[in-house]
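Record type: monomer structure entry
Structure origin: computed from sequence
Chain ID: A
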Amino acid sequence: MNNLPSAISHFSSLTARFVIRDALRHPLLSSINILSVALGVAVYLAIQITNYSANRSLAAGIDVVAGKANLEARGDIDDALFPKLQKVRGCSDATPILEKVVTLPDFRGEYLHLVGVDPLTNTDFRTFEIKELSGSNFDQWFSNPSSVAITRAFAEAHHLQRGSTVRVRVGEKIKTLSVEFLLDAKEADSHLAAMDIGWLQECSGETGKLSSVLFRLSDPLHPGPIISQLKDLLPPPVTVEAPQSRSSQVEKMVAGFQLNLTALSLASLMVGVFLIYNTVAASVVRRRAEIGILRSLGVSRRQIRLLFLGEASFYSFCGVALGIVLGVAIAPWCIGIIAKTISNLYVLTSIEHSFIPWHQVVVVTGFGLATGWIGAWMPANEGAGLPPLRALNLGLLIEKSQRFRPGTLVMSGAALLLAVVTAWFAGLQPAAGFLSAMLVLLSFSFLSPSLTYAVGWITSTCSFEFYLTRIAAQNLIRSLYRNSITSAALGSAVALSISVSVMIFSFRLTVDRWMDRRLVADIFITPADNEIAGFQNFIAPSFMQLLQTLPEVESVATYRELTVGLTRSSGPHPLGAPEQSEPAKNVVREVILGVTGESPRNTPDFVGGQDAAKSRAWQTVDHVIASEPLARKFSLRTGDLISIATPQGLHQFAIAGIFYDYTSDQGLLLIQRQNFARFWHDDRIHSASLYLKPGCSTEPLIDRIRLLYPGAEAYLIQSNRALRQLVGQIFDQTFQVTNLLRGIALFVAIIGIVLNLTVIIKEREREIAILRSIGGSAIQLLFLILTETFLLTVVAVSLGIGGGCALAIVLTDVINVAFFGWTIPVTFPWHDVLPTGILLIVTGLAAGLCPALAAARNSRMRILRSTA
């Protein structure tokens, strides 16, 4: 026992010399290996930082307004109801809130999220502090209708100070606000601003209206009776719930998008397993003499195994450390891209603070170290299992000839079968889709030995008199085990890249077809603020009158959106006007209701066809249509009954059809304007589409509209072509991070070729030296190695294209449907896939050029003497 500490100390010293000395002797290989792990760790951590920061920002945006409230009544509320709401039994405090997003004409692309508060009732609620709002300053808050409080960060970014003025666009009007106070709100978006609620009502033209009312309860643990009382006082469209519920709803909205990014970010780490394998395998080959000496001196197999696992741990640890630094460094870039995507697709946000999720740092450290241990285990066992005499006989470095083993084909088929089964379960548990995708990659990885053997055998058989080609093909088979690992690694990365390319191409083609069907108007008009704030501002009635009287205009289609409460009432119901029934008691979800005055030229594309019949049913009383994502979430079918909260109470509508829609994965209902008017006496609209008469030009008419209407600068007036270009830009922006992830995975895999060739060349040093000694030239040797590299890359690219096509089907038909609910017909862009394959083969040859040149320059006499 007394010798145990000494033994541990000696072994630790041996491990340090064994690992660090070798790393210093081969700095290029060490750097490549560390970088491969670091890239995988960096990408994963950057995505996790982005997701965590986005969730914190979204939650902070809600919490800073809701503050310390226990309940929130949210919707269009008449402020005349506020005194009654204050007196509800069980409510200890209540405060009114009005929210408005306004754009800043002097700062392009910027906005302020104005929150109207009552400082007399809001003090106990708010989590932000309005500096110097006390004593005599109260007079300034109440007496100055343009007084506003902004965050210090926003003031500094735009060089504003107390007393500065800020112009804001409210509808068609430009208002001037005076910066009189500063906000101090922890983690809040810098765009937050506060005004007196009365002045904001007047400034925004929403006198007598509230966005929400916040409540603090005497008994927060039992809110049920109070919610019932509040619902009795409030109109049905208004929802009453805890503010935390809204935070969780927003997080759920973006959860699928974030999970897909996380899954893609793991790809580089998966490829890193193969690279660690090649690195440790190379180390085993290079250090067989050391293994033989250590084994002869009494070092056990277990200790030899630990030495190589220690080497893998060293590279993994260095890679993890570097990856964490890189991940933190590239996270701000990812945050900027993801923030734009979330704002475009889900909810307006500005992610200005980067938060490191330390639990994910621990997770990625575990992933990185596990990557090293998993990849190193097999070659470490191989090195530990070498008998001392065989290890010292350096003339036996070449692998024995490998025979075709059908077992891997069976495993490939089994993995593919399991992928099909798990794909079916994705409808019940969406995460099963990722398991299906992993099994597809695994299936094609198991196919690697068979395909490698087949390519080598066919090339050898068909090479005829080209003996160098035959030798290269036979070498491919002789190193079948290691070559299969490399081709599987590169093939997996290629499959990921190809599958994402196919998915993006299919999605883009589907969206283009959808736009051809739905975006058929000649001119689209909406308030400019809506481009940032979403559908918040309305088109002025006077502007609508002008548009409808233009002689060039054949018809005008209108659109507006509002949030409504939706309850599933019953199953299938025959098409036709449904009968009235008792209102449903529980509203289960908020959904978007789109109100449209459809043009005959613009008809929805319905799932299952029968567009004409379903469109006619939609025109009838008490019918709506549901988008495909919404139908999947609620399991809705044509003919089902749903209850929608209207100002007149809950009312039943029948689903006239399910239509394809790619504007949002949250889904929406569409109702005809005449049906909407029966329950909502509100004719305001968010956007208008102009259909021109034949022969009329678009751009001249847009210029004339801007001249005819004095407030036209407050509107975004776009031609069909301009809107399509904008949709394309948003589409490309959405997939920027995805393209980065697949590029890194490919880069890491290309490194694998260099490592694999290094191992093979080291194994065959004696054979190469003999070839040079009997007259083989450096050019012939270079040709031999590059031919084997070419064959290896062909195998990998073939696996990648086949696996990528299969994986694309899983991404589009399984994962996409499970998380987003869209139907995307898979379309293979062969004009892009095949050139990509050729480019990868050329890249593989270029990657193999350096080790091939090094082998051609090696001293054959030194090698022959050392292996004699």
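Annotation 1: The radius of gyration is 33 Å.
Annotation 2: The first strand starts at residue 71 and ends at 78.
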